[in-house]
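User: Design a sequence. Structure:
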């Protein structure tokens, strides 16, 4: 075999290995119950903010905590070691990546789905434009 063929085979093997490692580290979607069963393991939970419970921010520790419900109705306290995201109360859905402990879900990353600024009342009727 030529050196170039060996280099190509090694490069392909490295890419396959890298892909397998990345797939193995990817988090999975679950609910709070499943996250608690996998305690300490990174997972992603999609849920909703429970507005009936309190939201607390401690500026000394830069810790924001709130209560969230997952899609199955399970409710748990979420701790996020960052300031409260802007318009957090208006979010329709919250995607929380993190891990469960025996007392709370520790979110390392939060992604919010905010309500659309466009709704049926603000839509323009395209038939009226072209007539």
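Assistant: Done.
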């Amino acid at each position: 075999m030529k050196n170039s063929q060996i280099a190509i085979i090694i490069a392909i093997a490295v890419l396959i290995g890298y892909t397998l490692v990345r797939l193995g580290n990817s988090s999975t979607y679950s609910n709070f119950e499943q996250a608690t069963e996998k305690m300490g393991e990174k997972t992603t939970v999609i849920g909703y903010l429970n507005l009936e419970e309190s939201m607390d921010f401690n500026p000394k520790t830069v810790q924001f905590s709130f209560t969230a419900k997952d899609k199955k109705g399970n409710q748990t306290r979420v701790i996020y070691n960052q300031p409260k995201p802007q318009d957090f109360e208006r979010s329709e859905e919250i995607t929380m990546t993190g891990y469960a402990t025996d007392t709370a879900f520790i979110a390392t990353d939060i992604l919010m789905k905010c309500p659309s600024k466009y709704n049926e009342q603000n839509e323009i009727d395209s038939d009226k434009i072209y007539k």
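The CA atoms of residues 52 and 77 lie 13 Å apart. Residues 3-25 form the longest helix (23 residues).
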